[in-house]
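Ticket #4471: structure export looks truncated?
Reporter: QA, pipeline team
Priority: medium

Steps to reproduce: submit the single chain below to the structure queue and open the exported record.
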Amino acid sequence: MRFIPAHEVHGPAEAPHVAIVLHGILGSRRNWASFARRLAADHPRWRVVNVDLRNHGDSHGAIGPHTLGACARDLVALHALVGPPTVLIGHSFGGKVALTYARDLRTPTLRAVWALDAAPGPRAAASGAGEVERVIDAVRLLPLPTPDRSAVEAHFVELGFSRMLARWMTTNVRPVDGGLTWRFDIDAIEAMLADHGRHDLWPFLEDPPAGLRVHVLRAGRGDRWTPDDVARLEAAPVDAPVLPEAGHWVHVDDPAGLRALLDASLDAVEAAQ
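Actual output as written to the record:
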């Protein structure tokens, strides 16, 4: 039995085009909720489907192994409810899921894929690869249940994380008897992250299929790309825009710049059909 991830659909049911939005590791669809609503409001011929990846948010109960391929196949299970995607938009880990879907499971409806600050190679090659592991270690150190969100924030700040990241982690808790616990399955997420690190999607970017518009956006102030990665991306036959003033959280740091790029992309796809 296929696992169908939790999701929200924005836009009219009769809209002929579907854009699927995928968050990053340790996140949830809540991170992209306002952005997805705005995107749907600005494009009335589109339904924007904001998804919780397996083991995140409200998407629980998936059977392992927990891999990039499994996350991509979960999107296929969504077809029965929302239809196949016209455009895929994935941030960070979600960007690599989107590229995996486009490479392995592409449907005839898919016209464009966006990987937002998602370095396509093995994670060990990226300068920022250790941060997520540090966050996972910190997650395991937090006594549960924790009394409130302020205790979560204080825990991460005390361990040396930025106030911004500490506050973001407070969005990942849910109430239980005695306080709060995590929304995600940390063991399954660690397995997902390990699989993510093993995959190399450069061959796909360097030889994309005809008829598919591949966009790989880079955050100008991010730390996910080595100089060699940047040079390789710029040489690849894909669109490689840069948001120069944005850090890794591109939808937070430069939402207007990101919306302008996606608005133009959705309009171009719609005009071509």
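Status: closed, not a bug. The export was complete when the record was re-opened. Leaving a note from the reviewer for reference: The first strand starts at residue 7 and ends at 10.
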